[in-house]
Write a structure and sequence with these properties.
Blueprint lengths: L17 H17 L7 H4 L4 E2 L5 E2 L5 E7 L1 H9 L14 E7 L5 E5 L6 E5 L5 E7 L4 E8 L4 E11 L7 E2 L5 E7 L23 H6 L20 E8 L5 E9 L3 E6 L5 E10 L7 E9 L5 E10 L5 E3 L5 E5 L6 E8 L4 E10 L20 E2 L5 E5 L7 E5 L4 E6 L4 E6 L9 E2 L2 E10 L5 E7 L5 E7 L2 E8 L4 E8 L2 E9 L5 E3 L15 E7 L5 E7 L10 E5 L20 H4 L5 H4 L4 E5 L8 H18 L3 E11 L1 H10 L7 E5 L5 H5 L11 H8 L7 H6 L13 E6 L7 H13 L4 E6 L11 H19 L10
Parallel strand pairs: 37-38, 37-39, 39-40, 40-41, 41-42
Antiparallel strand pairs: 1-3, 2-3, 3-4, 4-5, 6-7, 7-8, 8-9, 10-11, 11-12, 12-13, 14-15, 15-16, 16-17, 18-19, 19-20, 20-21, 22-23, 23-24, 24-25, 26-28, 27-28, 28-29, 29-30, 31-32, 32-33, 33-34, 35-36, 36-38
Length: 791
């Protein structure tokens, strides 16, 4: 949001004193006109293009910045024109690829007028930008944009595998690129086509296969939360000048492998492939790590059974002699793996205890932001570990001495990111060898940027504020920094600053719609729990909030999540993908205040703990004189939808509730199965209850709201995507039928063909959902509106 200064310098002469006074009055009127207290229009808010997380890329010379923006309306328009769209980059569809000049601020759209781009990568010399464009439901085409000619070249013969999620990988000389292409193109069976042979699908348990291994079937589906194995892909090296292609690897499992890492000398690739899950109660994958020689195609397994998340967290030393990676995920403890090519040995070093993330006994520092790749210094002697599973420190490992020590740690500061280096694997700043770290204060939730000297290890706080900074990237040899910046009432934009962060200026205005509206601001509140602990929450205040006035309060929880950490993110959302439909400013500009509570719980006590912790936060908002105790609402998505149902069967204080893609029965949710044989929720439910249904059935019952629906009096709106594979529509239908049988006030809206996340829904269904949700809360919390912005 742009603010204009209103200070006037009045001259001594009385003859001209009226002129600055007049100008000041005009500027004040302009401020009032630029930001007005009025409801955000739903259709326009859902049409805003917001940046895609992790899409910020800067050329090696720092002259150009690429990024992507997406919006739901554009996705739907592309789909209506029969152009295939993919769920990429945290669920975004309809993405435009932009290139921004860091010097002139000239912004051009490289792809997006009639296509949806994703996975853009600059060449090492900064001249070319590779990106992928969907052509059907399973394949992409490779495009290369040349900044010298401002033209894109397409490679029509390449059928790039879209389901492998491999971004293009550049060869060091910038004259060739590696992509993954389909090895086999299998046509899917379509409903309604003529049936000429049996369409049976046979699902077999491991025990059945063990006792009768020779009985073959068409499909041996996954027995885990999702399929680990899938269609094979080939890794191809494409020469940009001649178009010639060379096979690097003839068969890699597209479902098991999600990322490949090329050595700096261009001779080897390394990747991790998921092989199994770590037990029946876990969604933690165990990966084998493989080394591929580009010269002869030989693949060597350098580690087995490493806990990882989708193969992320791997990096090469600058001299291409070592590979470092970290364990990550729900069941992983902090371990650093070092593989030496010369000795062909893998060594493992522990740097932290069991991860906090994923445990049901969460701590306030457990909110995950990313998986950090180890950072090497220029001479490949030291590697620095940034682990988002253990977010309070950076660890330093010295190869010659094999010593591992804490490099950076500040009490009450939660590490959320490290600046991305460009020219080398070391972040240099102002001629000094430093690492730039981003933290969030565990108490105030303020963001800080620290410059940490490599030699002295002394951290220097170079910036602190209430804004959220992400993808902090060194540009122009770290003379400047580029990053996304946002606040609860300011949508994300790209900013640039001097290396010391003293001079900052905004490079983009991606969502000018919001500049014309007064939006709700945020604050942090804390409350005591019944068990004696303390929990935080974020309050997104009603737009134009007046102290001393009470407002209707809508609680938006998610179990195990620490939503207070999102207090400085736009609209209180977890990211731009969620802002598509969870733009909570749509509610604040209509007179509502939103509570985003931290929601810890203990194994076996999920429903009761969530009630105790969340309702204590509601009481705190009431005690502060902000929330109206007679106008309380609650909404939630997925496991948050379950939380909504768990709350309203334990209290009558909520006057309206919205459960989105939620479930009420632990039993039916755990045992739902997708067409590929996977059971996504089984280990989630067993982890929350503590064991299987047969080991402790009572825990399953006391944590299932369906058994207590007869106590519920809160009017409930249920929404559900008809094509949801994570929480299937049978769960929503079961809840609706049960409440209808009990003669409760309940409404069920099922959106045919739509998936789990509303951010991926078609634009008309997004508009219908948001309109229906706001209308439901207005019906019960604000039946007699004073004005469009006030209840």
């Amino acid at each position: 949001m742009i603010f204009y200064g209103t200070k006037c310098r009045c001259l001594l002469s009385l003859m001209i004193i009226a002129l600055p006074i007049l100008l000041c009055g005009m500027l004040n009127q302009q401020v009032a006109a630029s930001s007005q207290l009025r409801p955000l229009p739903i259709d326009q808010a859902l049409s805003v293009s917001l940046p895609v997380p992790n899409s910020l890329e800067v050329t090696s010379d720092g002259r150009y910045i690429s990024y992507m923006t997406c919006n739901g309306r554009r996705s739907w328009q592309l789909e209506s024109h029969k152009i295939a769209n993919h769920v990429v980059d945290n669920g975004f569809l309809g993405c435009q690829l932009h290139v921004l000049s860091a010097f002139t601020n000239a912004n051009r759209v490289i792809a997006g007028d009639s296509m949806s781009a994703h996975d853009a990568r600059w060449s090492p010399d900064g001249r070319f930008l590779a990106y992928l464009v969907p052509i059907d439901s399973s394949t992409d085409q490779l495009y290369i944009w040349d900044r010298n000619t401002n033209r894109s070249r397409v490679f029509p013969r390449l059928r790039v595998a879209s389901n492998s999620y491999y971004p293009p990988v550049w060869i060091p000389g910038s004259d060739a690129i590696i992509v993954a292409i389909h090895r086999n193109l299998v046509s899917a069976y379509h409903v309604g086509s003529a049936i000429t042979e049996s369409t049976v699908t046979v699902y077999r348990s491991p025990k059945d296969l063990e006792t009768d291994p020779w009985n073959s079937a068409k499909l041996q589906p996954s027995a885990g939360p999702w399929p680990i194995s899938g269609d094979p892909v080939m890794l191809m090296l494409v020469n940009l000048q001649t178009g010639a292609m060379r096979t690097l690897a003839s068969s890699i499992d597209a479902a098991a492998v999600n990322r490949i890492y090329l050595s700096p000398d261009g001779r080897y690739m390394v990747y991790a492939a998921a092989t199994t899950f770590n037990g029946p109660h876990s969604q933690q994958t165990l990966d084998d790590v493989h080394l591929l020689s580009l010269s002869n195609g030989k693949i060597v397994t350098i580690a087995t059974g490493a806990p990882m998340v989708f193969g992320y967290g791997i990096s090469w030393s600058p001299n291409s002699r070592y590979i470092a990676w970290i364990t990550s995920g729900i069941d992983a403890s902090g371990k650093l793996y070092i593989y030496a090519l010369q000795s062909s040995k893998t060594e493992i070093y522990a740097y932290a205890g069991k991860t906090l993330f994923g445990s049901h006994d969460y701590s306030p520092q457990s909110e995950r932001t990313a998986i950090g790749e180890p950072i090497w210094d220029a001479n490949s002697a030291n590697v620095y570990v940034f682990d988002c599973d253990h977010q309070n420190a950076i660890w330093k490992f010295n190869l010659p001495s094999r010593k591992l020590n804490t490099f950076f740690e500040i009490p009450n500061e939660r590490l959320t990111g490290i600046a991305h280096p460009l020219d080398s694997d070391v972040v240099g700043l102002g001629g000094q060898r430093v690492i730039i770290a981003i933290t969030q204060n565990a108490i105030t939730k303020h963001t800080s940027v620290y410059s940490i000297n490599f030699d002295s290890r002394v951290p220097k706080n170079i910036w602190e504020g209430s804004a959220k900074l992400t993808q902090l990237t060194c540009s122009r040899n770290c003379r400047t920094l580029v990053y996304f910046k946002e606040q609860a009432d300011e949508s994300p934009d790209i900013w640039e600053s001097s290396a010391d962060m003293k001079q900052q200026h905004r490079l983009t205005d991606l969502a000018p719609l919001f500049d014309g509206y007064t939006l709700g601001r945020s604050r942090v509140i804390s409350w005591r729990l019944p068990n004696g602990g303390t929990v935080d929450g974020a309050l997104l205040m009603s737009a134009g909030y007046v102290s001393g006035r009470r407002y209707p309060l809508i609680v938006f929880p998610y179990p195990g999540s620490y939503k207070s950490n999102f207090v400085n993110q736009f609209a209180g959302s977890e990211g731009p993908a969620d802002t598509v439909v969870d733009d909570l400013q749509l509610l604040t500009t209509r007179g509502y205040t939103i509570l985003l509570p931290d929601a810890p719980y203990r194994t076996g006590r999920k429903m009761r703990d969530l009630f105790d912790d969340i309702m204590a936060g509601v009481d705190k908002a009431i005690a502060l004189g902000i929330a109206d105790p007679q106008r309380l609402g609650v909404m939630g998505h997925s496991d948050g939808g379950y939380t909504v149902l768990g709350l309203i069967v334990q209290t009558h204080r909520f006057k309206a509730a919205v459960s989105r893609s939620g479930f009420s029965d632990m039993i039916s949710e755990a045992f739902q199965m997708d067409d590929d044989g996977s059971a996504y929720s089984l280990n989630i439910v067993e982890g929350a209850t503590g064991d299987s249904l047969w080991a402790m059935p009572q825990k399953w019952i006391v944590n299932s709201p369906v058994f207590y629906f007869n106590y519920m009096n809160t009017p409930l709106l249920i929404t559900q995507g008809g094509g949801d594979i994570y929480v299937q529509k049978s769960a929503a239908r079961e809840t609706f039928v049960a409440l209808r049988r009990l003669n409760k006030i309940v409404q069920y809206a099922e959106y045919g063909g739509e998936g789990h996340a509303e951010s991926t829904w078609s634009y008309p269904n997004q508009v219908d959902y948001v309109t229906r949700m706001i209308g439901w809360f207005d019906r019960f919390l604000c039946p007699h509106r004073v004005s469009p912005v006030s209840c």
